[in-house]
Amino acid sequence: MRKLLVTGGAGFIGSNFVHHVISHSDDHVTVLDKLTYAGNRASLEGLPEDRLTFVQGDIADAALVDELFSAADAVVHFAAESHNDNSLHDPRPFLDTNIIGTYTLLEAARRHDTRLHHISTDEVYGDLELDDPARFTETTPYNPSSPYSSTKAGSDLLVRAWVRSFGVRATISNCSNNYGPYQHVEKFIPRQITNVIRGVRPRLYGKGENVRDWIHADDHSSAVLTILDKGALGETYLIGADGEKSNKEVVELILTTMGVSADAYDHVTDRAGHDLRYAIDSTRLRDELGWRPAYADFEAGIAATIDWYRANEDWWAPSKDATEAFYATKGQ
Ligand code: NAD
Ligand code: DAU
Description:
single chain; alpha/beta; two-stranded parallel sheet; 13 strands; binds nicotinamide-adenine-dinucleotide; binds 2'deoxy-thymidine-5'-diphospho-alpha-D-glucose
């Protein structure tokens, strides 16, 4: 039985990963999570108590991190400030968690020679033109646009440096946009679903032409477990499921799936520096490690996600009003 430490395990993708690991392995999971506004202990409810330990704390707390690393066989690092819009408003927590927090984990991995998998994003590569046939690969140069993506890029570079300079046993993955259960209502898909549930019209930034490459969070989890088990140390793997869609297409799909007219949305103030298009080429992960996504049908995945938000209003309602109050101050 492997002892896994999962940082950020009460967040969206981290909690999906913990559910995935517990149902697909014998691993014991310890979650280290600060429970910021984005963390929710309820996302881990229902999991067997003998398989899961929850520790509330900060990844930048070196003494706590050291103690937890000394008991772990491997660490999967999801914890981050993750929302671009917040990073445009107040970048400081992004530096503290994404840079200093990752540095703190790397130093502990170095001291204890602990296997570490670092979770990152396709946003480190900047954006692509809408009509560009290119997609991001492991060799695309870094070119981040926002305070969020620049701190994620910085954290990736720290991992690479600790691998090369100190022999830390780490891998990195850069994934595209995730959707699924337990995602905070500040993010695009849950924001629009919960708006429609409340009878509010969805909000599309700018013209809505921006393209994101959607993957179900459970497919992200299976890819991370594959890299943890079979990935080559020191290497980077891109994770994606060929799910490119414009924001306008996604909003129209949500509306029609929820029984509302496809044009019942509003265009609002665009995001500053808004990346145009992301697209992932995950050939390396598929060819070298044999990974395949299981959620091929985006329409079915969105319908299931809508059902989840309809059935779990107790989970998201406490965050909805504060989230919308923040957006209202920016005309969004
Ligand atoms: P999230 O905001 O939903 O969750 C982040 C979690 O980290 C929360 O539980 C929060 O409490 C915790 N946390 C924040 N600061 C912390 C700290 N200092 N110490 C301990 N815990 C802390 O984020 P998410 O969308 O689940 O993203 C998880 C990871 O995946 C991030 O590293 C993000 O960059 C990456 N990622 C996200 C996406 C996506 O589409 N959401 C895509 C690719 C990569
Ligand atoms: O690509 C991976 C990244 O995906 C992750 O690294 C980030 O952590 C994650 O938040 C996500 O970043 P995005 O900025 O792409 O996601 P977000 O859900 O904020 O927005 C998705 C798209 O929808 C983006 O083009 C902005 C747009 N949008 C967003 C909101 C909240 C709207 O049009 N309206 C909205 O109300």
